[in-house]
Design goal:
Structural class: mainly alpha
Largest sheet: 2 strands, antiparallel
Distance between the termini: 37 Å
Helix content: 55-70%
Number of domains: 3
């Protein structure tokens, strides 16, 4: 059984005489795709530990997004109740600030204030419950990542949450066999722009954005905490790269180091496509030092 992505089905549907989308036309398009490219399509993988890590990582992200939304609401309400509340509570991103809002008691002057205070208390209670839920999910992620015995912790800037997301997106034993494929999957390979006398590269907005964000976090950590990563970043920005495009280069370097960690654990050697110039080869050796 082979895995067929929706955008590949759409490519064959657009080749047809009609542009309608029905179950019958989708089945026919999938049949044509399997007939033409069945040998190159990936096989469907069974659900394993990586599936559990991806589900837990998605759930944690959803909880954090909900917490951010409630924090914004709580801040808006507290500005109306006590505009200078931060002088006593501190930042709402700390549990101490949320607890202060939950226990705040002010003189009951006016009906509007009596209406706002219960809303503040309820929002604070919901945020504290979300904090507890996030802690439970993080503990489960830690247990599952330790069970996987992943070698990804050899990279600087990789913790439990980052490792869980990487394993969840590319699998315990990745099907991809070269750094170029990983770069295309994560959307960290720069897009060439050569048109109208303009030459250069721009950021890749495609690919798996969850995996892209995770590699971006690793690159930020290496730029902040690792001397070699920081030196490489400033070396590239000194060549004329802007701050956004300059950071894409460390992301590409991190992507080249992530895949060999998994393949070495699986006993598989990474594949290399194409010949590289001496300058590119020397840069690749310097990129490997970032790992």
């Amino acid at each position: 059984m082979h895995e067929v992505s929706p955008h590949r089905t759409a490519q064959y549907r657009h080749r047809g005489r009609t542009q309608g989308k029905t179950d019958e036309t989708d089945a026919l398009d999938i049949a044509w795709l399997l007939l033409a490219e069945g040998d190159t399509l990936p096989e469907v993988q069974r659900d394993d530990l990586s599936t559990e890590l991806r589900l837990l990582s998605d759930h944690r992200d959803n909880l954090l997004a909900e917490k951010t939304r409630l924090l914004n609401q709580l801040h808006a309400q507290m500005l109306q109740v006590a505009p200078s509340y931060k002088e006593k509570s501190g930042r709402l991103t700390d549990a101490r600030g949320v607890v202060y809002c939950r226990d705040v008691a002010l003189p009951q002057d006016g009906r509007l204030l009596r209406t706002r205070l219960p809303i503040v208390h309820q929002l604070a209670e919901q945020i504290l419950r979300l904090d507890a839920a996030v802690a439970v999910v993080a503990a489960e992620l830690t247990t599952h990542v330790q069970e996987s015995q992943t070698p990804i912790f050899a990279l600087r800037g990789v913790g439990t949450i980052v490792a869980a997301r990487i394993i969840g997106e590319i699998g315990v034993a990745p099907r991809i066999r070269c750094a170029a494929a990983l770069a295309a999957l994560a959307g960290i390979s720069p897009v060439a722009v050569f048109s109208g006398g303009r030459s250069g590269y721009r950021l890749n907005r495609g690919g798996n954005r969850q995996l892209n964000r995770t590699i971006h976090v690793i690159a930020l950590a290496q730029r902040r905490c690792d001397l070699r990563g920081r030196a490489y970043y400033y070396e590239e920005t000194g060549r004329g790269q802007d701050t956004t495009g300059g950071l894409a280069l460390p992301e590409t370097a991190v992507g080249r180091c992530v895949l060999p960690c998994f393949l070495a654990a699986c006993g598989t050697k990474p594949m290399h496509h194409g010949m590289r110039s001496p300058r590119r080869a020397s840069r690749s050796r310097s990129l490997a030092a970032l790992a």
